[in-house]
Amino acid sequence: MAGRIEDYALIGDMQTAALVCRDGSVDWLCLPRFDSHAVFAGLLGTEDHGFWRLGPAHPAGQEPPASTRRRYRGDSLILESEWDTPRGTVRVIDFMPPREHHAPQLVRIVEGVSGRVPMRSALRMRFSYGQIVPWVHKVDGRTVAVAGPDSVWVDSDVDTYGENLTTYADFTVAPGDRIAITISWQPSHQNPPPPAEPEAALATTEEFWRDWVSHCTYHGPYREAVVRSLITLKALTYAPTGGIVAAPTTSLPEEIGGVRNWDYRFTWLRDAAITLSSLLRTGYREEAQAWREWLLRAVAGDPENLQIMYGIAGERELGETELPWLPGYEGSVPVRVGNGAAGQLQLDVYGETIEALHLAHMTGLARNDYASLLQIKLIGYLEDHWMEPDEGIWEVRGPRRHFVHSKVMAWVAVDRTIRLIESGDVDGPLERWRELRDAIHRDVCEKGYDPERNTFTQSYGSKELDASLLIIPQVGFLPPDDKRVIGTIEAIQRELSTPDGFVLRYPTSGEETGVDGLAGDEGAFLACSFWLADDLAMIGRVEEARQLFEKLLSLRNDLGLLAEEWDSRLQRQVGNFPQAFSHVPLIDTALRLTASGAYGG
């Protein structure tokens, strides 16, 4: 049985990622890419769907023991888990070396600390999301599992054996012993990958992260949380192309047992753009440049058909299907791969994309003429389509609406492009677009604002609220001291807050389908809760902002990781994990509170 979402640690190589549970079980790993089929899919099913547990041996029929403590080695993505047992203490070091020219690898090193501890490795590979049992055999002393186009090679310092369609290794470690077991993926038609070199790979991996973190320009009071979030965002970046996945998982539910289960292993323009913003603001220009190049390739010469998301290499076809053989995380079905929202109209992505390009330009990223041309073309499209209803930031599967957030972000897109023209770096119809900017602003203030309640609303003509309205002061649509902004913030606090003070995205029906066209409820959305802390600081309620921010930090798991949402009733994380859209606003709010001098200690 899979652990709680917060029981998992992330390791990865900037091309894919694995989730490691407290009991030493790798329950999720897709090879060779984030969006490839999983070879370990136990997270969404049972052990029969693939796992790799490495930890102290335990009696048959008993639950494997959870690690006594765990941590990342310094500012890295190298996981160290320790077990204190009646026979001694043992440490397991898990990591994935950043990939260059070698095969993707997951390396596990067992280190004896004290006493003599019996250990067991149980490796059950199941290809195609747990559906296919591979052919496992020995080749020149190495174990290999083959199924169709895929092969996984096992290199072990101790003998392995097969039993019940599982590969086992049993051994004992004493102080100073170091036993390594490594798996490497390779296309099955190619020659075997070279044998693993675990200790050299560990040194290289540690050096990589030490060097990368050294470029961080943030040295404020929340540095630990910020750096861990930055490392997580880096881990979600697909190094060959610069694309950034929203999360490395699919179908972790927004409601335990519910149907709100989506595949997040793709690059949303919105998520990637705000990630780019955080990276730029903390000193990471190379990632920003790589993402901009990814964007230009993905959009190509067809900005009129801008998608809200693409594959990590810029693929456009992301067809959504269900995997009926997987019972889902804690019974949450359906399990989905692909994402049908790729075909939606979401006008806000024009704003987020252009805001990211604008920030890159303002922070001195090397000029790219096509990026400026793309910005002009995108505004040309918005000029003709901003007044249309859309599916909005939350990708509702109900009818299209005139979402206020979408209109505000359309205004952002036009405003930032006007600034680009005013800087003299590009030509465009300046006066016409100034009139367009004013027209969008006027439209929102007239049709998206409820004067009786003194709040903006989710959509034109609606009485409902939406937490995305919290970005209004952050993007400069209205100043923080505007009474309509303050009224909106206070309305959201009253009507969209959970009993423990976190923020829901919007009202869900609970019984019937609501605005999003889906049954059921969901947890508090962590990004929106960080947005509220930001807004509270902007309107001068700085101490309240700090308290909310630090309360949000307390929701992170013991390794500093956040899923998409928080279930206030069950007091646990829900949704895909770890989630870029949670870690980015954490960084942004930390920067704002640091600038305001609002922090404890």
Q: What name is given to the CATH topology of the largest domain?
A: Glycosyltransferase
What's the main sheet like? 8 strands, antiparallel
Count, helices: 14
Computed over alpha carbons, the radius of gyration is 25 Å
- Helical fraction equals 25-40%
The chain-level structural class is alpha+beta
CATH architecture descriptor of the largest domain = Alpha/alpha barrel
**Overall number of structural domains:** 2
Distance from first to last alpha carbon: 41 Å
Strand content: 15-25%
Oligomer: single chain
Q: What would the principal axes of the Cα set say about the shape?
A: globular
Low-confidence stretches: none
Q: What is the CATH C-level name of the largest domain?
A: Mainly Alpha
Q: Kindly state the mean pLDDT as a whole number?
A: 93
Count of distinct strands = 27
Structure overview:
The structure is a single chain. Helix content is 31%, strand content 21%. With 601 residues, it is an alpha+beta fold. Helix 3 runs antiparallel to helix 14 and helix 4 (269-281) packs parallel to helix 14 (580-596).
